Amino acid sequence: MSHAYRQDDTLWDSVARGEARGRDRLLAAHYAEFRKIARRVLRDDAGRLALQPTDLAHEAAIRILKLERMDWRDRTHFLATTARIMRQTLLDEVRRQRAGKRQAPPALTLWRHDDRGAVFDLEHFDEVLARLFEVDPERARVVELRFYAGLTLAEAAHALGISESTVERRWRGARAWLLSALEVPD
Predict the structure, then answer these.
(1) I need a labelling partner for 119 at 20 to 30 A (CA). Which of 22, 24, 76, 129 fits?
(2) pTM above the 0.70 mark?
(3) Domain boundaries, the chain
């Protein structure tokens, strides 16, 4: 687990009180991790999106700074918020490109398995993920943390406060469901 994600009760108390200084300290402590997550999320796709990992991390940090209400109780809640912000930032970029070029957005790589990646349209993936949230929110949260926050199974388990084997089962189930819904061969 990275140093940026270690619990600091004083920091979280400050953030919970809505103090801007606490939020700023939290972002400073996590910015390097945002960049690492953005690199994982965009792995081979930055060129197709015209969005570099640093841009994604920076935009996520800016959006967090602009949040009027900071109701993060702990690291898990912060990670979930960050994942949603990265998700929205990527979707906004795809939509911006689609509107500007009047064509389908570039396909992105969903995950790597046996040296190959499933390729998908991000907007379609987001629609399918929204359906998964309706059907099975626990599995959808694992997908969101794995894909948009770039967490490993162990990190997702820690963030969700459940065992790694439970996260692994949820990930396998969610992955199979998503591949079927996206009509991507496994």
Answers:
(1) 76
(2) no
(3) 3-182
